[in-house]
Design brief:
Elements (H helix, E strand, L loop, with lengths): L4 E3 L2 H13 L4 E6 L5 H13 L2 E6 L19 H11 L3 E3 L3 H4 L17 H5 L3 H16 L3 E5 L3 H13 L5 E5 L19 H6 L1 H15 L5 H15 L3 E8 L14 E8 L4 E8 L5
Parallel strand pairs: 1-4, 2-3, 2-5, 3-4, 5-6
Antiparallel strand pairs: 7-8, 8-9
Helix pairs in contact: 6-7, 9-10
The structure holds adenosine monophosphate.
Amino acid sequence: MSKPQLINTVAKMQAQSDTWRGEGLRIGLVPTMGFLHEGHLSLVDYSLSAADRTIVSIFVNPLQFGPKEDFAIYPRDIERDIKLLAQRGVDAVFKPQTVEFYPPDFSTTVEVTHLADGLCGAMRPGHFRGVTTVVSKLFTATKPHLAIFGQKDYQQAAVIRRLVRDLNLDLHIEVAPTMREADGLAMSSRNVNLTEDERRRVPALYQALAMAKRYIECGERDTQRIIGEMRSQIEKELGGDIEYISIVHPDTLEDLSEIAGPVVIALAVRLANVRLIDNISAEPSRK
Ligand code: AMP
C-alpha cells in the first residue's frame, strides 16, 4: 500500500500531470468534496481500471453552497480519506487551498444555462454555477483524459457533460451508477448528519423511487398520478420538506406530463440538518 502524493497547489498539480502526459499515460480524475464512502470509491475503482494514473480531488467548494446551506457542518476527515485512497492505490490527491482557488479578487465564473435551471438548480440559486466553475478549475489543474461523476447527482452529471461539450473541453466524462446502503439509501457524505430517527426513516425515499419505477414499467403513463403517490408515501413514512419530486426527460431534464420513453425520476427532501437528493432511471416495458 503506497500513499498517494498529496498535492496542494495548482502549479505542482499541473507539473505532475504534464509529466504523466509526457510519458503517454492516461489520467483519470474523480472530483469529490471528501468524507469518502463506497460511492466515491466506486468512481475511483472505475478510474483505476480505465486510466493509468488516478487523481482524486478533495475540496469542499464554498462557491456551490448558498449562504444558508451546510458548508460549515459539511463533514471533513482528510486523514481517513487519504487512508482509504491509499488502500485503493490512488496516485495523487489534489487538495487545493481555498486562498489559491478563490483569491479575493476572483471574478470569473462558468455557467451552463437551461439544464441547470430546474430541479436542484431552482432550489439552490447559484449552486450549479459554483459546480461548473470549480469543475472547470479542477480540469485545468489536473488535465485529465477522463473524469468520473456519479449518477447520484444526475443533474450535475448532465450539466457537466454539457459544459464539456459546449466548451470543447478535451476530456471524456463517464457517469457511474449510484451506490446504496443495504436498505436502499443512496450513500452520501451528508448521511452522517442525519439523526438516528431520520436515518431509520430515510429509506422511504428509495422506496418511493422504486415504487414509481414499478408503476412506469407496468404501464402507468400519467406522471402526476405517480408523483402524487410518491408524495403521500414520503409524507407518511418520512415527513420533512419535499423540495421537488419530478419525472423528467433524461437528456433535457424537462418535466414530462406523460411517459412515452425513458425517464428519470428525481427528488429532493430537506430534513432538519440535511438535504437529501436521489433519482432513478425508468422506462416503460415494451409490450
Ligand atoms: P461529492 O463528494 O458529494 O461532491 O461527490 C463526488 C462524486 O461522487 C460526485 O460525482 C457524486 O455524484 C459521486 N457520488 C456521491 N454519492 C454517490 C453514490 N452513492 N454512488 C455513486 N457516486 C456517488
